[in-house]
Design goal:
By secondary structure, the protein is α/β, with parallel strands linked by helices. It has five helices and seven strands. It has one domain: Response regulator (Rossmann fold, 3-Layer(aba) Sandwich), CATH 3.40.50.2300. It has a five-stranded parallel β-sheet, with helices on both faces. Strands 1-2 form a two-stranded antiparallel sheet.
Length: about 180
């Protein structure tokens, strides 16, 4: 870590982060073996806390073959789904104006929904909102996981590895209504 001083004289801490490697994190999966192999796994992160969003973006983009786009609210997330085929959705449960699970229900009804694996995140894992979202996903046989905040890198990597495994099992992101 390199301490620096900003214009007000208070200190900042910057940390250089190397690429994540399989040696450092043995659970790191290979990029998904999907049509067009060699391309980047498209990950959408919906997180209103700028610090957490930046951390997630930085961590996910450091993994070769993964590419994270970060938005901070439901409207921006819905707009991304109109233009990009999202292959993994990382979703905060507590968003301003609408909860993550409510956003998930809204996205499911949109014509561009492709049923990507979902990772829900919250600092309150026992809240009914989380439990209800997980139960609805299980009833639909959808790949939805939960990680508690604060999380460590291994928890995040494990959750993404499970999502990548789900993509590899199906061979692609499933279109709504597909068998």
């Amino acid at each position: 870590m390199t301490p620096t001083a900003n214009e007000s004289g208070t200190g900042n801490i910057r940390r250089a982060a190397p690429l994540l490697s399989a040696a450092d994190h043995p659970n790191l999966p290979d990029p998904p073996d999907l049509p067009g192999a060699g391309r980047t796994l498209t990950i959408l992160v919906v997180e209103d806390d700028a610090a957490v969003a930046g951390l997630l973006r930085d961590l996910l983009n450091r993994v070769p073959g993964w590419g994270a786009t970060v938005v901070h609210d439901a409207a921006a997330a819905a707009e991304v789904f109109k233009h990009i085929e999202v292959e993994l959705l990382v979703l905060d449960v507590n968003l301003p104006g609408i909860s993550g699970p409510e956003l998930l229900e809204h996205l499911r009804r949109a014509p561009e929904w492709r049923a990507p694996p979902v990772i829900l995140m919250s600092a309150q894992p026992g809240q009914p909102l989380v439990q209800g979202a997980l139960a609805r996903a299980a009833a639909r046989d959808e790949a939805v996981q939960f990680i508690a905040k604060p999380f460590d890198v291994d928890d995040l990597v494990d959750a993404v590895a499970q999502a990548v495994a789900a993509l590899q099992r199906t061979g692609s992101v499933q279109t709504r209504g597909a068998a």
